[in-house]
Description:
The chain has helices at 2-21, 39-45, 61-64, 91-94, 133-139, 167-173, 201-207, 235-241. By secondary structure, the protein is mostly helical.
Amino acid sequence: MKKIKNISTLLILSLSLFSCSTDSSDQSVTDADNDGLNNALEAKLGTNPNNPDTDGDKILDGIEDFNKNGIKDVTETNALSKDSDDDGVNDGVEDSNYNGTQDNQETSSTDSDSDDDGTNDGDEDSDDDGVSNSSESDADTDCYDSDSDDDGVSDSDEDSDDDGVSNGSEDDNGSDAGDSDSDNDGTNDGDEDSDDDGVSDESEDDNGTDANDSDSDNDGTSDGDEDSDDDGVSDGDEDDNGTDANDSDSDNDGTDDGDEDNDGDGSPDGN
């Protein structure tokens, strides 16, 4: 009888252990965020098991770890970095369909010079819209489509961060087309005067002059001293007055800006 009881006890323990080992609530095999990686692999990789896109590059963690081994392999993008190859272009911008492979028109997310031409992918302009791939990445526009939102306006002429400076000009100026205060100095990029010519970058963009060259046309006269609309008021003074340096009658009241007293000094602004 004692022997039978011992056998019964062993059977009960065995069943109990089997039950524990096959418990469907085992968190290691659960994919809590449905990104294609179970929690155990996320822990091994260092990604967030509750966030399907840990690095925020628009590519699922399970796509970045393409072979699902919990290791960042050479041919894979880094699920912990938005820009795996440090070329200034986010992985989700280079891999525009977020499928983890380099398709025909795309640059590589794991090679900073995809075409081996000596130019960093971030400095390339894949869609020839006048905005580098890195600036398109900053602006969150499509570097393979010159009109990303199909609104009839080139990405270069868009102002993604609403700072008064177009994306193309921001690219030329070296400012961030996705950040209205690129240098975090408290001054809007449009209000900066990058070349110290007395004309803000926003006004230079409006005037079609170069915000990085104080004499854009190389005529020996500073952009701030030019009078683009021949109203007798220099472009620098128009910038200070808030009038349009490309419109001799900015407020369309029938009076030339040069004959207005926009600076409030009691006399016409014109020279």
